[in-house]
Amino acid sequence: MKQITRICWLLLGIVFIFSGLVKLNDPIGTALKLEEYFEVFSKDFGSFFQVFIPHARTLSIFLSSLEVVLGVAVLLRWMLRQTLWVLLALLVFFGFLTFYSAAFNKVTDCGCFGDFIKLTPWTSFAKDMFLLLLWAVVFFNLRYLRRVFAKGTLGVMYITIASAVAIGIGVRALGHLPYFDFLPYKEGNDIGQLMKPQEAARYEYVMERNGESKTFTEYPTDSTWKYKSMNVLNPEKSKPLITDFSVFDADGKDYTGEVLKGNKLVLVVQDVQSADRDRYKDINSLLEAASKSRKRIESLVITSSSPGAFDAYRHDVNLGAPFYFADATVLKSMIRSNPGLILLQNGVVKGKYHYHDIPAIGDLEAKL
C-alpha cells in the first residue's frame, strides 16, 4: 500500500501542475471557456454568474496558477493535509462542472487541458473521478507520506517562488501570444487544406435479416438485407479541422477564396468595444509599408463587429485598409490578440503577431 500511495501522490501532483501550466500557456483561451460556463450558469441558475464574466481573465490566471501551486505543494508535501483539503474543494467543483456539462450537454469541451488535449464532457468527468480516487488514496494513507521535503521558511519560499513563476507565465502569455499554439490557425498550417477532410469518409452498415444483425463495410447488394444503421469508421479524419472559416464583405459577398490567395497581411479586430487603440501608429505604418513591399503584400482587416460600429472605429484609429467580416468565434480562434496580425501566403500561416509585438516590414518579407 505504501508504494501505491506514493504513486498516487506523485500522479496527483504532476497532473495538477501539468493542467495548470497548459492553461497558463493560453490564459485567454481559458478565460473564454470560463465565460462559456458563466453564460450557461447565468441562464440556468440566475444572472448572478454574469458578474464573473468581466473578470474571466483574472480568474483564468488565478485558478490556473492555483493548480500549479497546489501541485507543487503536494510534491513537496508542504502542509499536505491542508493542501489536500483545498484540492478536494477544487475537484468537487470541477467534478460538478464536468458532470453538469456532460449530463445536460451544456459545454462540449471542459478546457481541462486547454487546446492541447480535447476531452469530451464524459471523459472530463471520468478524469475528475480518477483524480478524486487518487486524492482519496493519498488522504487516507498520509502515514506513508510523513517525510516533508520543504519545511517552515524553506517551504514558504518554494511556494512563493512557484506562485510567482506561475503567475508570471500567465501574465506574460496574456500580454503576448501563447508560448505554444495548439489551434488550427497556428503558424505553418495551411488554412485551405484544413478546410478539406484528410480522407474520404468510410462507413460500416448494420443490416438485418430474419432477426439477425450483421455489419458490412460495403453496402450489400442482396436486397434481403434490410438497412438498420450506419457508422462512420474515420470520423476524425473525414471531418475538416477547420469548418467555419468564412470571410465576407458588408453586402454578404464571399471573400474567403481571395483571402487565401497571394501574400496577405490580415489585421484581426475581434470586437471594437474591447480592441486596443493605442498601437495604431505602428500598425498603420506597417500596413502602409506592406502595400509598398516588393513581396506584394496586400493588407486587409477582418472583424466580427457590425459595419456601423467598425466604420466608427476605423475612423477613430485612422485605419485605411479594406475590411471584411467573419464570425467572432473564428477570429478568437485565429489569434489571441485584439487586434492581432496574421501573415498569410496562399493560405499558409507564415506569422502571427500580438499588438504588443508588431513586427518590422523586413521581418514579414523574410517569412515570405
From TrEMBL:
Cellular-component GO terms for this entry: membrane
Q: Which domain of life is it from?
A: Bacteria
- UniProt keyword annotations, A-Z: Membrane, Transmembrane, Transmembrane helix
Cell location: Membrane
Xref: NCBIfam families: BT_3928_fam
Q: Report the membrane topology from the UniProt record.
A: Multi-pass membrane protein
Q: Where are the transmembrane segments?
A: 48-76, 83-104, 124-142, 154-175
Query: What biological-process terms (Gene Ontology) are attached?
Result: methylamine metabolic process
Instruction: Please name the InterPro entries in this protein's record.
Output: Methylamine_util_MauE
Domain named Methylamine utilisation protein MauE: residues: 1-139
Recorded protein name is Methylamine utilisation protein MauE domain-containing protein
